[in-house]
Amino acid sequence: MSSAPSDQTDAAAPEATGPLGERGPALLDLLAYIYLENDRPEKAAVLLAALDELGLADARQRTSLALAQLRSGKPETALSTLDRIALQGGLSSAFHLVRAQTLVALEREAEAEAAMRAYMDLRARQTAPADSR
Fold it and tell me: According to the UniProt record, where is the region Disordered (predicted)?
């Protein structure tokens, strides 16, 4: 009977690293990037949506998901994804750029201009030289 607890411990070990294993999320992220770079946004969206659904996607990956959705011809879905990112505080320069592109696709020019200004402002702050005093 002493072997039963060790069998349970061994069986539980893979679960400790999550359903995809330790390197699974990084591999899915890399594959999604490759799909996006090679004009396969639908495939990238599937992989990134899986990461998001499993709770393993960070703000950058969710922004990539929105980009993949946009490039797949689904700007409404992309905007919904971007809204979720915004609610979680993931407002990076990439977020604002993808948001601007999404709003252009939805023919919401005034909002697209505001998103592009936010992108430019954030990029300017990120690249501004630090005061050495």
Answer: 1-23
pTM for this predicted structure: 0.80
Start-end of H helices in 17-108: 24-37, 41-53, 59-71, 75-87, 93-105
pLDDT single digits (tens) 15-54: 445 667 788 889 999 999 999 999 999 999 999 999 999 9
Q: What is the pLDDT of residue 127?
A: 84
In a domain, 114, yes or no: yes
CA distance 111 to 133: 38
Does 4 fall in a domain?
A: no
Residue 64: how many CA atoms within 13 Å on its side-chain side? 27
DSSP summary character for residue 130:
P
- How sure is the predictor about 126, in pLDDT bands with cuts at 50, 70 and 90? confident
Q: Which residues contact 71 (CB under 8 A, 6 or more apart)?
A: 36, 41
**Tokens coding 104:** 């252009």
Closest CA relative to residue 125, chosen from 103, 97, 92, 98? 92
Cα(74)–Cα(82) distance, integer angstroms:
12
